[in-house]
Specification:
The protein is mostly beta strands. The chain contains one helix and eleven strands; from the N terminus they run αβββββββββββ. Helix content is about 10%, strand content about 35%. Keywords: Signal.
């Protein structure tokens, strides 16, 4: 019986020794990185607008407007959607001289890459696409145009303010 135990032990030790002496070798691992689609919105030379000031239109002094350039950078995407979260309404800040609240008409907000072909934005998303490129990274310049009609009547002078929230989403 001891002889059998000894034979089995020697057999296992010799097998273990052979197994440990076999080199493991290289292990190939395939790594695949998937970059998610991404959109960046900024001024053409970087940064963003803290404030945008509207000015009298030369054609119609009751209309205030502004055009600002915006760069849209897309990665791994050929299009995006843009919408307005809430209508832009410019309201006069109340002060000691005027207790009456004055507001502009709801502003028209337009967007496009060509001044002659700007699309009116609303809460319903508008889709925009860019031509596909080999690099899958594109930067396209656009124009944001805002216009609103000033309130009519007396006592309309003052400082007006409003908040515009644009929602950009990559196409899914």
């Amino acid at each position: 019986m001891n002889t059998i135990k000894m034979a089995i032990t020697l057999l296992l030790l010799s097998w273990h020794t052979c197994w440990a002496a076999t080199p493991l070798g290289d292990i190939d691992v395939k790594l695949e990185v998937t970059a998610q689609p991404r959109i960046e919105i900024e001024k053409p030379h970087g940064g963003w607008y803290d404030n945008i000031k509207l000015h009298n239109s030369p054609e119609n002094h009751a209309v205030y407007e502004v055009e600002v350039p915006v760069a849209v950078k897309l990665r791994r995407q050929e299009g995006y959607q843009i919408s307005i979260k809430n209508p832009l309404i410019l309201t006069r800040q109340s002060d000691a001289f005027s207790a009456i609240e004055q507001t502009f008409s709801p502003a028209e907000v337009r967007w496009g890459n060509n001044r002659t072909n700007l699309r009116l934005l609303s809460a319903v998303p508008e889709s925009f696409s860019v031509p596909p490129q080999a690099t899958r990274h594109t930067t396209t310049d656009y124009v944001l145009h805002i216009s609103a009609k000033a309130p009519a009547g007396d006592n309309t002078a003052g400082k007006y303010h409003g908040q515009l929230t644009l929602v950009f989403e990559v196409n899914s």
